[in-house]
Each structure stands twice: as structure tokens, then as C-alpha cells.
Amino acid sequence: MNNGYLLIRAVRGPLMLMALGGLMALHRFYEVSFYKTWPALLILLGVMKLLERLAMRPTGPATPEGGTGMGPFA
């Protein structure tokens, strides 16, 4: 596994907790209803999972256009 994937995975939990705390603070101090803002947590989780997937991509050389990268017997 590469370092980018591990970094994203390591910060996912703390970022979710900070986002939850921020939404709760908005609910408490600025009368922004948490019940209307909680989907932001799902969006953040989705973005973090997408970044993990992108970080897991192999960075090897690209195959020629139209090729499968499996040699002449593909």
C-alpha cells in the first residue's frame, strides 16, 4: 500500500469527528438545525472513500491505446 492511501485512511476518523463537532456547534450557537445538516457527514465520508480509491490506483506505465496490457495472446 502506498503512503497516500494510508494517510487518507488515518485522517478519515478524525475528520469525521471534527465535522460532527462543527455541525453540532452550528446547531448549538447559530440555530442551524443539525437535522438539516447531517447529510454533510455522508458527503464527507463519500469524498474520503473516493480519495482512498484514487490513492490505491496503480501508478505503473499506461497500456497502449486499445491494448489490454496482457501481451500478444490477449
What's the arrangement of secondary structure elements?
Elements: H1 3-29, H2 34-37, H3 39-56
Question: Any overview of this molecule?
Answer:
- With 74 residues, the protein is mostly helical.
- It has helices spanning 3-29, 34-37, 39-56.
- The longest helix is centred in the N-terminal third of the chain and has 27 residues, at 3-29.
- The mean pLDDT is 85.
Concise overview:
This protein is an all-alpha fold. The longest helix is centred in the N-terminal third of the chain and has 27 residues.
Fill in the keyword field for this structure.
74 residues, mainly alpha
Strand content: under 5%
**What class would the helix/strand composition place it in?**
mainly alpha
User: Helical stretch count?
Assistant: 3
What's the number of domains?
A: 1
Order of helices and strands: HHH
Beta-strand segment tally:
0
